[in-house]
Amino acid sequence: MDSLNTYLFIAAILFSLGLFGVITRRNGVAVLMGIELILNAANLNFIAFAKFGGMNMSGHIFALFVIIMAAAEAAVALAIIINMYNNFKTINVDDVQELRQ
Amino acid sequence: MADLAFWMIVLLTLVSAAIVVLNRNLVYSAIALLFTFFGVAGLYVFLWADFLAGVQVIIYVGGILVLIIFGIMLTNRITSVNISHTSVQKSMGGLVVLGILSVLGIMIFNTPWLQTEFVEPVQTTATIGTLLMMDYLLPFEVASLLLLAALMGAAMLSRRNE
Testing the interface with A: which of B12, B16, B57, B108 to mutate, by most A Cβ within 10 A? Predict the structure, then answer.
């Protein structure tokens, strides 16, 4: 249980699931959820390496910055999705192909 | 006992993550995402990152998940019961992702990772605070600017122009 490989493999599975969501979902909000899963997987890697590299706290700082970035990204992405819905009446990422109406 | 708790948390994380990407109903996906975030916070606790587990719960569950649910509500008519959506090319996507996962797995289990002796930390939060104010002061300030810019950008973008 307590080995680096276990955590790395869990993070790899989480990353793969997130990637699957990003490439197969068509709803913009669902794509965003996949991105959140990928960011969580990256954070898990940072913290696992921090622990097994002799409790190096720099890994924790990096994970903290990733969380900050995820918050900013979620706010802007949802603003864009809501704008998309107001303009095109759909948030299907395959149907929105023009930058202007 | 700790082993059992660990594997339960791993199972919770991965099963709910699978529900997030596979369920047809968006609201169910959002609820499953909640359990994924809690599971990852639990894994952080197993990795001695208690402060980050708290931050994860506060920001992801309290902030990002609420934003996502708002996004679902604002982009679907509440009267339409069918808040669902379809996925495209599931088999092809699954194949690609399985390939990537197997390559990652081979890489993880074949690399001789450089590991050092684990020393039990005396305190984690105080160390993170000191590092943020000493070694990582510039990124810390840049992050505050990024958050301000994201706040203003999101407010401007989501405003309806007359």
Answer: B108
ipTM of the predicted structure?
0.91
Q: Do B26 and A30 touch (CB under 8 A)?
A: yes
Q: Tell me the per-residue pLDDT of A24-70, one tens digit each, with 9 for 90 and over.
A: 988 888 899 999 999 999 999 999 999 998 888 889 999 999 999 99
- Structural domain includes residue A95: no
- Distances from the Cα of B9 to the Cα of A42, A48, B50, B150, angstroms: 18, 16, 16, 33
List Cα–Cα distances, B126 to A46, B45, B51, in angstroms: 19, 17, 10
| CATH number of the structural domain spanning residue A33 | 1.10.287.3510
Both tokens of A98, joined, read 């023009």
B108 contact residues in A (CB cutoff 8 A): 5, 8-9, 12
Whether B94 and B48 share a structural domain:
yes
Q: Are residues B88 and B26 in the same domain?
A: yes
Q: Flag if A8 and B108 touch (Cβ within 8 Å).
A: yes
- Contact assignment for A1 to B3 by CB distance below 8 Å: yes
